[in-house]
Amino acid sequence: MSFDPSQLTALATVLRLGSFEAAARALHVTPSAISQRIKALEESIGAALVIRASPCSATPTGARLARHAADVALLDAALLRELSLPAPPARLRIAVNADSLATWFLPALSGQDLLYDIVLDDEAHSAAWLRRGEVSAAITAHARAVQGCDATPLGHLRYLATCAPGFYARHFAQGLTRAAFAHAPMLQFNEKDMHQHDWLQARCGEALSPPVHRVPSSQGFVDAARLGLGWGLNPEPLVRKALAEGTLIAMAPEAPRDVPLYWQVNRLVSGAIRELSDAVRAAARALR
Fold it and tell me: b or e along 85-112 (b: 16 or more beta carbons within 10 Å of the residue's beta carbon)?
């Protein structure tokens, strides 16, 4: 069986924009035409593809087909450029951890003839987006490539345990003891973020459960530490200036946490985004 390109485009656009009406406006057709294309595609596949809610979301099969549509568009655009023919920018969906996005990843995206849909997820979990077929590339913490993908090492992102000087004086006057860590408020990006817990366990030799502030923003995480809300592991590039100015202190500079990073790309589109992959590697090298 072959897929109708207009139906795949309708599906991908509904899922990207979240509604049939928005997809109709983007594609310059009526909402009824979008609905008919999605219905015809679902009937030919024999499965629901769109969860009709506000916003619309994909079923597992719908997500896989939408990624296929994006991959085909990437390949088509690459071929047109190879033939020196005009090509509209193709769309690439990437899973990236927030700290990479905040420190080094964005410069790699500039200068590429691509449009981006960036999904934020912890580097320990971003490979799952590749496994589900929902993205074509990802920054992950896993050296082992997802099936059908290639993994390229990027080096590591260094984290330092940091807090405000006043916070340190208030909670760690007797030093970085187990008792102090058990009671001092800790920062956590979200429920997936285990950086602080893992660092604590390595330092104290046991798992601890201190009180936690959840701050789902890389810059917000730095600001929360600087304002004395808690202590946390921050990417060294983000806190370099604050450390130099003394608004933050490194609690244990001899014990950084180095998180390895890998660029994983679906092999089907690796050739079409080779220039981007080169730029990602170069941006990662510049961080070292």
Answer: eebeebbbbbbbbbbbbbbbbeebbeee
